[in-house]
Amino acid sequence: MSDLLAPVRAQTRPDDRPGESLQVSGLAKSVPGGRQLFDGLSLSVAGGEIVAILGESGVGKSTLLNILAGLDEPDQGEVRVGGERIGPLDEAGRTRLRRERIGFVFQAFHILPYLTLGQNVGLPLALVRSDARAIGERARAMLEAVGLGGRAEDYARDLSGGELQRVAIARALIHEPALILADEPTGNLDPDTAARVLDLLAAAVRRTGAAAVIVTHSRATARIADRVLTLTASGLRDDTAKEVLADGR
C-alpha cells in the first residue's frame, strides 16, 4: 500500500519534523453542567508517529480533537502545533494555523459535491495560493498516490465510501501538514475497506513525516498506531502494551 505514495515526494520541514509536531500540556475541560471530561492531560507526538486515542462515546474524544485544532478552548493548559502555541492566537491566526499545519480526516468525509475530486483535494492549497495550474497538478498527483489516478474530474457521487475516504486523506495531506487529526476515520466503512484506508493513512504519515492523532472507539482502527492511549477523566492512559499483546504483534 505504501507504494501508492511514490508519486508524491513530500519534504519534511526542519521547523516541524522529525521533532515533536504536537505538544499538549496540562489540558482540562469541563462541559456545561460542570461534568469534567479530562484534567491534567499531556501528550507529545513526534513527526512520523501515529497515536490512537480510544474511549467510549461521550468521554470527550472529539472535544479533545477540536481543542488540538484550535476549534475549542480548554479550561486550562496549552497546545503547540509545530512549535506554535494555539492559545494566544486570535481566530484569524487559528484559521491560518489550520490551513498551513493541520490536515483533517473526518468520519463523514466532507467531500463537497459541487466540486470535482481534484478541486476537493486542492482546496487547502487554493485557500492560500493562487496558482491554479500548480494546485491542479499537485491534486492529480495526490489522487494518483491514493490509487485514484485519472479521477480528478469525477464527482463524489461517482465514488464508494472507501474511495471517498481516500480523497479525504489526499486532501488532508496535500499541504504537507505537521499534524493530521482523524475523527473516527473508518466509522462509515466496512471492515475490509476500513483496513485498506488505515493502511493508506499509515503509509502516508510515514512518507510525509506528519504526526497523526486518531480518535476512535474501535481497537481495529487503533492497530496502525505506534501508541494506543485511552482517554479517561484523569487524562490519557497508555494501553500500548496491552493492545500489542491482544493483537499478537
From TrEMBL:
Q: Which SMART domains match?
A: AAA (SM00382)
Give coiled-coil spans as residue ranges.
none
Record key words, sorted: ATP-binding, Nucleotide-binding, Transport
Instruction: Please give the PROSITE patterns that the UniProt record associates with this protein.
Output: ABC_TRANSPORTER_1, ABC_TRANSPORTER_2
GO annotation, cellular component aspect: plasma membrane
Q: Region (Disordered): which ranges? A: 1-26
- Return one GO MF term: ATP hydrolysis activity
ABC transporter domain: residues covered: 22-249
Which InterPro entries did the record assign?
Answer: AAA+_ATPase (IPR003593), ABC_transporter-like_ATP-bd (IPR003439), ABC_transporter-like_CS (IPR017871), ABC_transpr_LolD-like (IPR015854), MacB-like_ATP-bd (IPR017911), P-loop_NTPase (IPR027417)
- PANTHER family recorded: ABC TRANSPORTER RELATED, IMPORT ATP-BINDING PROTEIN
Family to which this protein belongs: Belongs to the ABC transporter superfamily.
- This chain belongs to the protein called Putative ABC transport system ATP-binding protein
Source organism of this protein record: Aureimonas jatrophae
